[in-house]
């Protein structure tokens, strides 16, 4: 019996199962939420359970077989002893019948009785030693079966630790998703949980240039009304598939777990897309009215001009304003109300991408200045589309993210 070999084999199988490759994961659909971690572990657990059951069945049958062999031996032995005893008894009885004279002597008879009882004692002692051996064997096998449970318990513990680990490993932003699940499709809706968030939530991710961008605002055709109050802007609104504002609270949580880059894409009605990028972007918390922290405009790669932090009307440090929470710099005016939107208004803005959607590029003068504005690109012009996205800046990214 090679019990040690079996245990080693079992552990080896468990190791194989542990390192089960994740290559059979399903491909990622563009707009399906991605929950690949759980099924993979459930499948792994199922395989482990299968291996455990097979090994236990095998060992139990082995135990049965061994016990059978020993019992058979014991029965053979018992049978041989029985026939011996039977022969002795026969000898005794024939002696009784035929040799009465010797009985008078008594010696032969006593001798016979002595031999008989000696045989019986030896028989009894051999039987009990055999029983002891069987008991010992049973104990050994039970110990072995218990041992067999141990690696499984160990693996179970590992799995539960891994699960905790995976829970902590819920991506904290789209860049995390890119790093965890690469290769990915160009964009989609994914679940993230920033370190500062108590709950996970869905975001739209754009994967580009070896990084993952978390989209915080999208305008495309005016299907969603952006003239909303403080709570809507705080919690977010719209549809991640079309137009939306992710929500100031979520943006605050995202941008306070590392340094974030802000990338604004605006598409005019009559021209191709323009870009403005800032190396530092963050929102303070609600007590600070989601104050905008923005700096390091990247003039080398930006084509739309700086309409957020230019000295002309610098929104850096500006509080967020909605029509029902006026934090702009004008005591005589409510910018959010006047311009039908919500933004980090100053007095009032250089940019305003949450304005009412206008289906033309035409300049809309003064108080009627609705629309999506980025003044450094075109004063009094409303944009056709806008996408505002953010990305965590990694210390290693100079060699990694800029590779492509
Ligand atoms: C001994 O005697 C008894 C009765 O007389 C008889 O039944 C038995 O078969 C005899 N045994 C032998 C071995 O001859
Ligand atoms: C009894 O038998 C033994 C041999 O078995 C013999 O030596 C002895 O003399 C006998 N005694 C009697 C009293 O017959
Ligand atoms: C008991 O076992 C011993 C050792 O296995 C053997 O020598 C002896 O003959 C056995 N006794 C009987 C009555 O079978
Ligand atoms: C019974 O098993 C123990 C180990 O569990 C072993 O040390 C001992 O020698 C065994 N005894 C017999 C009689 O097999
Ligand atoms: C990705 O790289 C291309 C080519 O360098 C560049 O034009 C584009 O703006 C980059 N995109 C982002 C989001 O940085
Ligand atoms: C805007 O675009 C989305 C997606 O293409 C579409 O479902 C929606 O109907 C459009 N809305 C308007 C007002 O054009």
UniProtKB/TrEMBL annotation:
Signal peptide start-end: 1-19
A family per Pfam: Fibrinogen_C
Gene Ontology BP annotations: positive regulation of heterotypic cell-cell adhesion
Domain Fibrinogen C-terminal: 165-394
Localisation: Secreted
SUPFAM superfamilies: Fibrinogen C-terminal domain-like
Gene Ontology CC annotation, any one: fibrinogen complex
Highest taxon of source: Eukaryota
GO MF: extracellular matrix structural constituent; protein-macromolecule adaptor activity
Stored PROSITE patterns: FIBRINOGEN_C_1 (PS00514), FIBRINOGEN_C_2 (PS51406)
Keywords of the record: Disulfide bond, Glycoprotein, Secreted, Signal
InterPro entries cross-referenced by the UniProt entry: FIB_ANG-like, Fibrinogen-like_C, Fibrinogen_a/b/g_C_1, Fibrinogen_a/b/g_C_dom, Fibrinogen_CS
Main localisation: secreted
Protein name: Fibrinogen C-terminal domain-containing protein
Organism: Rotaria magnacalcarata
């Amino acid at each position: 019996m090679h019990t040690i070999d079996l245990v080693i084999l079992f552990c080896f199988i468990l190791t194989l199962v542990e390192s089960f490759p994740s290559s059979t994961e399903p491909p990622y659909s563009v707009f399906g939420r991605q929950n690949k971690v759980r099924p993979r572990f459930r499948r792994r657990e199922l395989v482990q359970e299968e291996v455990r059951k097979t090994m236990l069945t095998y060992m139990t049958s082995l135990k049965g077989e061994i016990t059978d062999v020993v019992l058979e031996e014991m029965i053979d032995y018992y049978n041989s002893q029985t026939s011996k005893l039977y022969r002795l008894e026969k000898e005794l009885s024939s002696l009784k019948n035929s040799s009465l004279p010797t009985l008078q002597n008594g010696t032969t008879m006593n001798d016979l009785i002595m031999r008989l009882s000696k045989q019986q004692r030896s028989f009894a002692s051999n039987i009990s030693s055999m029983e002891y051996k069987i008991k010992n064997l049973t104990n050994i096998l039970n110990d072995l079966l218990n041992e067999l449970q141990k690696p499984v318990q160990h693996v179970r513990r590992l799995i539960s630790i891994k699960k905790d680990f995976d829970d902590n490993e819920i991506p904290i932003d789209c860049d995390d998703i890119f790093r965890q699940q690469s290769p990915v499709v160009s964009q989609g809706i994914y679940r993230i949980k920033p370190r500062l968030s108590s709950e996970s939530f869905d975001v739209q991710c754009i994967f580009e240039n070896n990084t993952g961008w978390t989209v915080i605002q999208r305008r495309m055709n005016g299907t969603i009304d952006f003239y909303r109050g403080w709570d809507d802007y705080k919690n977010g609104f719209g549809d991640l598939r079309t137009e939306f504002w992710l929500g100031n609270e979520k943006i605050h949580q995202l941008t306070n777990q590392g340094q974030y880059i802000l990338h604004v894409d605006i598409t005019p009605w009559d021209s191709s897309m323009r870009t403005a990028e800032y190396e530092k972007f963050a929102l303070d918390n609600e007590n600070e009215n989601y104050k905008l922290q923005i700096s390091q405009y990247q003039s080398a790669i930006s084509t739309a001009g700086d309409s957020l932090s230019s000295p002309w009307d610098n929104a850096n440090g500006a509080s967020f304003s909605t029509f029902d929470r006026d934090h702009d710099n004008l005591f005589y005016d409510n910018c959010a109300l006047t311009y039908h939107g919500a933004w980090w208004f100053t007095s009032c803005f250089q940019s305003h991408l949450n304005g009412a959607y206008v289906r033309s590029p035409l300049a809309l003068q003064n108080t009627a200045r609705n629309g999506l504005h980025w003044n450094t690109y075109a004063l009094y012009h409303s944009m056709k589309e806008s996408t505002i996205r953010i990305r965590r800046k990694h210390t290693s990214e100079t060699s990694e993210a800029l590779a492509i």
